[in-house]
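User: Please predict the structure of the protein below. I'd like the answer in structure-token form so I can feed it into my own downstream comparison script.

Assistant: Understood. Taking the following sequence of 362 residues as input:
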Amino acid sequence: MDFFQNLDPAVQFFIFSAVKIGVVFGVTMSFVAYSVLVERKVSAWIQDRVGPNRTSPPIAQFIPILGPFLTRLGIFQPMADGLKFLLKEDFTPNYVRLAYFWLAPAIAVIPAFLTLAVIPFGSTLGNPDNKMVIADLDVGILYTFGIVSLGVYGIVLAGYAANSKYPFLGGIRSTAQMISYEIAMGMSVVSVFLLVGDLNLSKVIEYQAHGGWLVFKQPLAFFIFLVAAFAETNRLPFDLPESESELVGGYHTEYSSMKFALFFLGEYANMIASSAMMVTLFFGGWTLPFLGEPASGLLGGLLHIGIFVAKMAAFMILFIWVRWMFPRFRYDQLMDLGWRRFIPLALANILVTALVVAFVNR
């Protein structure tokens, strides 16, 4: 530790940032893997089934009690799924537009990870200068919406590159859907920043630490953001770009092996990013009503990170539960909800919030 403190401040910053990037990436990948397991277990519970409870490495058979217990929980299933994606044949149809076909999965997955760079997942760790955010931008929310809007390009390219009608229809649907709900999502957070007076996400959490969670002050904004998050991540009841019963599999119909896995990874990474944003904007980030002050030591900093991750996990379970409990919207219902319901509601909410803020600050 003394060696680290004696280093040049710029070197310390670089090392600490690299460690944060590595940890966030590793935790996100683990979250993605085990979110799939939780989804399979939750869907099995809802449908009165057992879910994954067989897959295990050979060594687990020789560990008494614990080995069979972990196997029945399905803990080893994500490892088997990842290995399966790596070993499956990577088949590329000869009629696709090759360059775009290979590029689309990468474009679909990268924006979700870039979004996580500005999320404050904790307060500080040991040192007040060691902020638990990779990039503490003053315009964090603008950066977030700018990056999130890039994700649709991967889906559109996938639909176009496949040179097939079902993927193309899926890409077109996704474009219209994401444009429609990005407007409502962006407008829903305007009222939040009218109250906070700052675009920095760390400042939003500090405001909630002393003034109460914004979900209680802006319930309508939270509801609009929540529903728009389902549409942005292409999750049921808004999975129109994939809808297996209509479009076979939508934009990733022609994909296999790791290229298909990247779309899968992108969907769950987007769910994690959306959950993290909702926790940050409306549920106090790493704070609790009785634990709002910044951490003063290593233990307190770790506790705040745990609080943030627990809240984020709760939203992930909500995403999963909704998928298995609600039917898919018709496309006209999807568009009607976005343009004729949520956008006017978000505008009205901005107007009311602005009037209240102006009256209070008069």
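That's the full token string. Residues 89-360 form one domain.
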